Amino acid sequence: MDHAQVIVDLRNANEFQLIGRYIELNWRDFDSDTCKMILSTLLFNEKNPDKYLDFMEAYSVPKWLAYFLIIKSSVDDDNAENYFNLIVKDNIDIRPEIYLAMVEASKKNKRKAEYYFNLAREKGKCTQDIYVLMIDIFRDTPSRAEYYFNLMKEDGIPFSQSAFVSILYAYRQNIPKATHFFSLAKDLSEGRSAQMYYQMMDSYKKEPSKAEYYFNLMEEDGIERTEHIYRKMMLVYINNPDKVEYYFNLIKEDGITRTASTYEHMIVSNRKRPERATYYFNLMKEEGVDRTASIYSKMIEMYARKPLEAERYFDLMKEEGVDRTEHIYARMIVISGNDTAKAEYYFNLMKEDGIERKAHVYSRMMDKFKKEPSKVKYYFDLMKEEGVDHTEYIYSKIIDAYKELPERAMYYFNLMKEEGVERTVNIYSNMINIYKNIQGEQRIILT
After folding, report:
1. Which of 373, 356, 296 is nearest to 331 (CA)?
2. Of 69, 135, 249, 355, which has fewest CB within 10 angstroms of its CB?
């Protein structure tokens, strides 16, 4: 349900009291983005935080819940902390949901997240969700994630499927540990979830037969296999087209809808067999599956050495109303090879089609004309005209283009400093190579 839209509709209908009631009934389902949209709707983009609570009171939103929405929508931990301190100052009972929101707001600052976790634990407000969130926050530090997992047992907090999914992810590269926790999950009252099996398959992605064991175990354990699970097995066997096809067909046999992502795996697995990849591309249309920009990108990439075929898919995108992304255009520029006129066609077409030309697109055009310094300069100057920043990589291109004209290369070397672009070791190395045959100049550059 689009909670934010419901709030908009209620506000437009002047049902202000119902807004507060709706929020009270549904706040548990609000994620941070929903909270941001709701606040934007209700506060009319008010920028003064001191007025937030007045606005929320007008909508009959309880004070603690108003704080919750603001903390949940906070873009950083400092902003959330300011409101948390106001709750303390106002002597409002701090509910577990507030602590959960504070830990979530602090997830990029692990030390602060631990502070709020410990505070919630000290106050007896630490719920299962808070423990699971701490495991997830430390999933790239497995031993610390395991500390919070074990703390759940120590504190008498029931394990959830989410706790096991998080610890399995943390130990995804430690198969013995992952296997240990997967075994423990069997004793869960609600059983092992499909996501746990998925994590085990991911741990064994370099050992397809082992991953397949867990796939088959799902059926034995009566766990429903979703398309997400099938796609994982297709990905595990991505370099074995026949095996990928087996799972592709199995999806249909099991009555599961095959999405564009599933077809994309088939196309990628057959990248060395263009005729088979084309078959699956055409099958998408037959089965009514939309061919996405990503699908077209894979087909274009597959025909990188056959520019005319690549161009056919590029043109077909427009016919079928599929947006041609910056990545697609950049790839067509590269595929054009030595045909500089074709590269310029795609570059200019980007502007006609309203596609932003970023620095990496300009760098590809510079590569096309690397033996023509004046053309490289043209694209360098055009970047400034169009408000695209000159990066260190762009400077390396133009300095290289003028390697036969040291004075011009030095001009751009100096310009980097004027524009505040870092002159890296690579840039200095290029300049040294340009001047290496000119006595004394190497010393001048280094100083």
Report:
1. 296
2. 249
Tokens of 111: 């030390």
Q: What angle do CA 257, 263, 268 make, to 5 degrees?
A: 155
Contact, 392 vs 419, CB < 8 A?
no
Dist CA 150 CA 35 (whole Å): 32
The per-residue b/e assignment along 383-414, b for 16 or more CB within 10 angstroms, e otherwise, is beeeebebbebbbbbbbbbbbeebebbbebbe
DSSP assignment, residue 31? -
pLDDT (tens digit, 9 = 90+) per residue, 272-315? 999 999 999 999 999 999 999 999 999 999 999 999 999 999 99
SS3 call for 104: helix
Roughly what angle, to the nearest 10 degrees, separates helices 208-220 and 227-236? 160
Burial group, residue 309, by CB count within 10 angstroms (0-12, 13-18, 19+): middle
Question: How far is 163 from 152, CA to CA, in rounded Å?
Answer: 9
Q: Which residues contact 378 (CB under 8 A, 6 or more apart)?
A: none
For the chain, which residues score pLDDT lower than 50? 441-443, 446-447
Half-sphere exposure of 365 (CA within 13 A, CB side): 26
421-442 per-position pLDDT tens digit: 999 999 999 999 998 866 554 4
The predicted model scores a pTM of: 0.80
Element (H, E) at 332: helix 326-335
Please enumerate in sequence order all residues whose Cβ is within 8 A of that of 379, keeping only pairs 6 or more positions apart, or say none: 362, 365, 366, 369
Retrieve residue 325's tokens.
Answer: 């992304």
Residue 432: predicted pLDDT: 93
d(CA 204, CA 414): 52
Provide the token pair at 409.
């290369």
H or E stretch covering 286: helix 274-286
SS3 for 60? Answer: coil
Alpha helices by DSSP H, 76-207: 77-89, 96-105, 110-122, 128-137, 142-154, 161-170, 175-184, 194-203
- Integer angstrom CA distances of residue 115 from 106, 122, 222, 314: 9, 10, 41, 53
Whole-number Å distance between alpha carbons of 282 and 7: 43
**Distance between CA 33 and CA 78 in Å, rounded?**
18
Half-sphere exposure of 324 (CA within 13 A, CB side): 25
Would you state the pLDDT for residue 447?
A: 45
Give how far Cα 322 sits from Cα of 263, 279, 298, 343, Å. 17, 20, 14, 21
